[in-house]
Design a protein that fits this description.
21 helices, globular, about 0% strand, mainly alpha, about 500 residues
Length: about 500
């Protein structure tokens, strides 16, 4: 330290003497900074940068329990009532935690206790409750706990008010220069709110903000997870992989680039035995093949594509999930829908690059492959309860919409008599009718996606075919068999008389 102080003193004296006499006077020689001195400065800056990075890495593991106090922050907002908070937390833990395992019960209640002294805690809980009201629609499961809805015309309007409040209060502290895991989670929920409200530019901003804050904390570095509480680092690891999945889904939907890559280990059950991670790991593995290569091809920034590579990717997706999932019904709804939507996205890339053929021995490389995908998606969604799908909000509806639109394009080009040789009882038009019924009955589907789907049918299909499709026909029904018969696409929990009357209880 004495040597460093002496060097700094010498440098300080040198720079003061130079600038005090600037501009140089006649006959005054300005000493240049020698190579040796420049090297000392570079080494000092490097050490200081390493020290700051190490402090940031250590702080990130404790950032769950580090409230940012603000003496001017109010205790609670009038609209963010304790009853609303309780209802949203109960709903999240019961129905959303398996697919979004980023905040455990103890952490949530600790944040609630800190809301009156921490701007960060308040903003996170406000964004969290706004997300629960806008995206999955918490009132459909727990209407009796949301008494504050009486002053708002809808849950979406209450969620929008909470979203605006969180954004306004978040400006009161510097979460960028001093990032934390809670700040990452807040940005993620803000993204979810804006996505549910169809504010896509703002949604993209907050998702990019979340991934940037995560990288500032070193969440892409395995060394970050070696320090701190095991429960907290396990939650942080799952947060990284949730951002990883979300970024890829959004990149495919909106043609955006990627920032996160598979640079850390996957979560393991040993980190947190209380959480059923099997379904979450399946979700991560579904999206892992969609790396910079695929997204570059998808966004037309690359051209090095091949038939063999795309066919291999289709095979990966087809075999990515086991026939019977050890998961809740809610997880199964997300996994199965995402699987068939991703198959559709790969097929779209195949046709864009001119790799399809009507005579290909590989069905995934033929023009009629979306009919097979539609058949598989119909078989799955026919066995799922409406509530298990609605929990995932407009994101799941949009995936069904994409599959339906691709099916319409195929119906307009491929002769109908050659489309479904193995199923005489039902065919592609029945699949399309099923998707129309599904989109029209799921929450927010009728208002946002149904008019677009009907318009595409009218504009794309022949008049006689369009007229038969757009009529209100009953959806395809698939019998729900017991485990002794044809299995469900997920593991069923025990049922009693109460659960049989409420199909949403299967997701508990």
């Amino acid at each position: 330290m004495a040597i460093i102080s002496a060097v700094l003193s010498a440098l300080s004296f040198h720079f003061h003497s130079v600038f005090d006499s600037w501009p140089p006077q006649p006959n005054v020689h300005v000493m240049p900074v020698t190579e040796g001195r420049a090297k000392v400065i570079s080494e000092l800056r490097l050490r200081e940068g390493q020290k700051k990075a190490e402090h940031r890495r250590q702080d990130s593991t404790n950032s769950y329990a580090s409230p940012i106090s603000s003496p001017s922050s109010p205790i609670l907002s009038g609209i963010l009532t304790q009853e609303l908070i309780d209802g949203c937390i109960d709903f999240y833990l019961a129905h959303m935690y398996p697919t979004m395992p980023i905040m455990h019960s103890e952490q949530l209640w600790r944040l609630v206790a800190e809301m009156d002294i921490s701007v960060e805690a308040y903003c996170l809980m406000a964004a969290f409750c706004a997300f629960m009201l806008i995206q999955p629609g918490v009132e459909s499961k727990a209407p009796q706990t949301i008494k504050s809805l009486t002053t708002f015309p809808s849950t979406a309007s209450l969620g929008k008010a909470l979203l605006d409040d969180a954004l306004r209060r978040r400006r009161n502290h510097d979460y960028i220069e001093n990032p934390s895991v809670n700040a990452v989670i807040t940005s993620y929920f803000l993204f979810g709110c804006c996505f549910g409200l169809d504010k896509q530019n703002t949604a993209w901003f907050h998702l990019r903000e979340a991934t940037t804050l995560a990288q500032m904390l070193g969440m892409q570095d395995e060394k970050t997870y070696l320090l701190g509480c095991l429960i907290e680092t396990a939650s942080m690891r799952r947060l990284f992989w949730l951002l990883f999945v979300t970024e890829r889904a959004y990149a495919l939907q909106k043609h955006r680039p990627l920032t996160l890559h598979a640079t850390i280990n996957l979560p393991c059950i040993a980190e947190d035995p209380s959480n059923p991670l099997t379904g979450f790991l399946h979700l991560v593995n579904l999206y892992r093949p969609f790396d910079d290569t695929f997204i570059g091809l998808w966004n037309k920034s690359r051209t090095d594509c091949s038939t063999l590579w795309l066919a291999h990717l289709q095979k990966q997706l087809t075999q990515a999930l086991p026939p019977v999932l050890e998961s809740t019904e809610t997880q199964a709804a997300d996994l199965r829908t995402s699987q068939h939507w991703l198959r559709t996205m790969v097929w779209q890339l195949s046709i864009t690059n001119g790799f399809l053929s009507s005579s290909s021995p590989d069905s995934s490389m033929t023009f009629g492959y979306p009919i097979e995908i539609a058949k598989d998606l119909v078989a799955v969604t026919s066995q799922l309860s409406r509530q298990s799908m609605e929990v995932h909000g407009v994101g799941l509806i949009e995936k069904i919409f994409d599959v339906a639109c691709t099916l319409i394009d195929v119906l307009s080009c491929v002769p109908l008599e050659t489309q479904s040789p193995h199923f005489a009882s039902i065919g592609p038009l029945d699949y399309l009718n099923h998707f129309i019924h599904l989109i029209s009955t799921l929450r927010d589907g009728a208002s946002r996606f149904l008019p677009l789907l009907v318009a595409k049918i009218t504009d794309t299909l022949p008049p006689h075919m369009a007229a038969s499709i757009t009529q209100p026909i009953a959806p395809i029904k698939v019998e729900r068999h017991s485990p002794e018969g044809t299995p469900f696409p997920f593991t069923l929990p025990p049922q009693d008389s109460s659960t049989s009357e409420n199909p949403s209880s299967a997701a508990s």
